[in-house]
Amino acid sequence: MSETVTALKNAHYDAGIAEVSEIGPLGMITIRGDLDAPFVRKVAKKVTGVERPERGMCNSEGGAGIAWMSPDELLLMCPHAQVPDVLARLHAAFEDTHTLAANVSGARAVFRVDGPHAREVLAKLAPVDLAPEKFTPGMFRRTRVGQVPAAIWLRADGSFQIFCFRSVAQYMFDLLKAAAQPGSEVGYFPPESGVNREKV
Amino acid sequence: MLILTCPCCHVTAEETEFHAGGEAHLKRIGPDGAEGEFESYLFMRQNPKGVHLERWRHVYGCGKWFHLARDTATLEVFGAYSAQTTSPPDHIRSAIQEKHPEWQWQGAS
């Protein structure tokens, strides 16, 4: 099998107020269908080990997770090597139903923004209320970052994971780097209510 | 700046996350229609100063279309409702009439 390469070969930037890194390759599978159907919940739980999230949320455990994308779409995450296996299981389970499961791992780029100012970096770029009491860990929000569509997920450890199309990966990385450049702290969010931990 | 709430994913966001899709509740003219009717179906649009019903799409979010009732002069939003309707629902009509008692829906045009 050919070698899997992420869009920016895991580019990394840590000279600024937050650490920006391209992560991956991450296995991503889109599921479209009736999300309230019991079999969708059951199958999604079976292949990932996590419950189907409620609206606007993302559940994860280890390398696997499920994110709520829209009223009829889920994003299933798993280790990249397991994608063919997971997809085969989904196809077998969805066989007779009007449900789609498609591998989108190669269509997306994934970034991690980490550090005490991560929230600020994202707040500069997206028209989303990222106040610590409004945007809480586990939330998953599809929005616009700069000029491109993206999804923002606040992980339990306080870091942000950003999903965008692979074709705009360089733009996204440059944008995050610019928003995280040294000395660009805004100080809008009180530090004690932001990320409750020291930079690791 | 408009602040809209998508009735599909219930996200409240400002207008740059959405895309306007023009006047709502157009009555489609098929092959049997007269030329003049077809022309007005294609090109003629209302441009009111005041209450307006529009189609919008949550383009950077869930991607769904929906309907929106708003005031074009004050930018007040009366409410968003499902795209799968052919006329504004009662709660939208009463929300508009609270502010504009004289307002009546003119029907699909």
UniProtKB/TrEMBL annotation, chain A:
Superkingdom, taxonomy of origin: Bacteria
Protein name from the UniProt record: Sarcosine oxidase subunit gamma
The organism of origin for this protein: Sulfitobacter delicatus
Pfam families (UniProt xref): SoxG (PF04268)
TrEMBL record, chain B:
Coiled coil: none
Family annotation (Gene3D superfamilies): Folate-binding superfamily
InterPro entries per the UniProt record, alphabetical: SoxD, SoxD_sf
GO biological process, one term: tetrahydrofolate metabolic process
MF terms (GO), sorted A to Z: sarcosine oxidase activity
Pfam families named in the record: SoxD
Protein's UniProt name: Sarcosine oxidase subunit delta
Organism whose genome encodes this protein: Sulfitobacter delicatus
Classification of source organism: Bacteria, Pseudomonadati, Pseudomonadota, Alphaproteobacteria, Rhodobacterales
